[in-house]
């Protein structure tokens, strides 16, 4: 008798209060306090750091950090720590409104470099344990547990615990994991025991654990669909499940109506899709001491050439060519500048990359000392498949500052 095929077990993992938790690694003295992340600029952070430059970041007194009530400016909150959420503040809320709810919460700006670093790190820790991982943005992934050793034990709890522990030990960050028969349910389940929780849902639990949830909890039912569902007096997932499929199709259209019916019954057979094609490849380095473009010209030049060689090597090894070449600098005051230029052909040649990157370097200010230098090649194609499309493709505007574009992540990335 052949053994039964393993039951499908799909996990959704989402980091807890991600941007805020990343800041807490740097400022552990703020643990347990209400903190909101927002305000965009790093100014606040820089002022504090300058004032207390005589000591490690972890010894800056709590009193030195700015309070939400003293915050001037508009802007919205990106995220809040769990203690701050008790006051009712959270993502996307205006800073002013939040200041009324939690005046004594601390405000810290986002450090995107740091966030990206930890994002890469937690994902690579997961991939070492369970290889089938789908990137769903800066702080979340789907993982196929089905064939992974331990992935079936206790419905996936054993493997989930292992992953949670590995991430915590290697980064100091916590996450929450939901394991279920499919992505749709796993995504909902990962929220059940936040923060630092694990939640196991089986197909038979849909009735008890999914049906009572408000319709918006289904990933794919947005604000517009919610309004329409409410008008039809459907408030919970169970309310949708109780409708005839045809009725949903009549009201929401053939494909959306049918999808909604399946979703409400917890049916979803989308696969976990591993790595999409890379959009860019880059190398960067932070110097041992800050360097000046003129006074340290030789040293800087050598590092620059080396970075170009490394990126070219990465491209060649992985079989990609690209046509947008860019640089990134970080000045000694932590400001960042990026420039890029799109050329008329695809390349993986270190000399070409060096030459174009050199042109980009001419377009930035070089009076201040530099902390970091990076080189990046974007608009990638597989080396064999890069057909010349220059003629019918509008080039990127010269001098345009670029943000890294990665599909499936927040706009900020
Ligand atoms: P989320 O995973 O939605 O939130 P979170 O990780 O902060 O908190 P939770 O424990 O509930 O998962 O988003 C991940 C990060 O993305 C978040 O830390 C900040 C950023 N983000 C924004 O920049 N804008 C937003 O509107 C949201 C929702 C998140
Ligand atoms: Mg999160
Ligand atoms: Mg998330």
From TrEMBL:
Coiled coil: none
GO molecular function, one term: DNA-directed DNA polymerase activity
Region (Disordered): 388-413
InterPro entries linked to this entry: DNA/RNA_pol_sf, DNA_pol_Y-fam_lit_finger_sf, DNA_pol_Y-fam_little_finger, DNA_polymerase-Y, DNApol_IV, PolY_HhH_motif, Rev_trsase/Diguanyl_cyclase, UmuC
Keywords from the named record: Cytoplasm, DNA damage, DNA repair, DNA replication, DNA-binding, DNA-directed DNA polymerase, Magnesium, Metal-binding, Mutator protein, Nucleotidyltransferase, Transferase
Site label Substrate discrimination, positions: 19
Cofactor note: Binds 2 magnesium ions per subunit.
Protein name: DNA polymerase IV
